[in-house]
Amino acid sequence: MVDFTAGSVTMMRIPNPQLSKESSVKVIITDPIAKAGVKMLQDAGIEVDERPGLPPADLVQAIPAYDAIIVRSATKVTADVINAGTNLKVVGRAGVGLDNVDKKAADARGVKVVNTPSATSITVAELALGHMLACARAIPQATQSLREGKWEKKTFKGTELYGKTLGLIGSGRIGSELGKRAIAMGMSVLVFDPFIKECTAGKMCEFPEMLKNADYISLHVPKTDQTKHMINKDTIAQMKKGVVIINCARGGVIDEEALYEALKSGQVGAAALDVFESEPIKDFKLFSLPNVIGTPHIGAQTKEGQERAGIGIAEEVRKVLLGK
Questions:
Q1: Which of 158, 179, 203, 241 would you call most buried, defined as having the most Cβ atoms within 10 angstroms of its Cβ?
Q2: Are 136 and 271 within 8 A, CB to CB?
Q3: Catalytic annotation on 279?
Q4: Is 308 part of the annotated catalytic residue set?
Q5: Which stretch of DSSP H or E encloses residue 320?
Q6: What is the pLDDT of residues 134-167, one digit of tens each?
């Protein structure tokens, strides 16, 4: 049992049923997870093979030997992998999104798919808040100026978050955590989420109202057919001039070409991106602009978040393999 509260991971003292050695239950882990999660599986009598960076073709060849696979975001658990997994019972995704797992193929074969939706919520929300502050005060640009031996004190006049309006697109776990922090900093929060009727982290509103009134817009939605390029030339035109856009959700929900043009024209004042349409990015066109900052998809990358995710996914996979 895992307590997913903020801060440290609390392991409860509960009985730890084990599989018999004769059962030969095997798990392959193809993206690194916390060592405590690996140990949890091993303590349950499960054989664990850690093979990070396994090429897709090799994974298809290897998967028939395993009862479970644990991944993060790098490994793609495709239909080919799932269909080749003749003994496969469960796919574990350490993290929130399941866009790298073919859920339809898994359902068709009766393979369970589990994840850890709350493990890194605070982690990602804090990164989004950090990006907002960095844009407001031009922290990366000012740092680079100092590295170049300059002292441009008057150049980097910023703005306060206090009194501004944050527009949240999506108010799930991460969006709600960001909304609570924004309110604590004196911001107003407008929330658009067609699947939620009430939200404690801000005022619910329709999409056009949020676009029109937000000084900052932060996206917290998965990439689906409905959300692909939801931020585009037309929706950007409805926003306040000088709006700041933050995306620590999924690449592809923003039309990057439209964003580039809006940043050049000044319609969008700044953008902070942790995710991109194609990763790792090869075209750094957006980063040729001085009002763009970014990080290489590090939203869930904190010691605490990864510890919670690793232990949490091990617990979920163990439950399935033990018939719980």
A1: 179
A2: no
A3: yes
A4: no
A5: helix 303-321
A6: 999 999 999 999 999 999 999 999 999 999 999 9
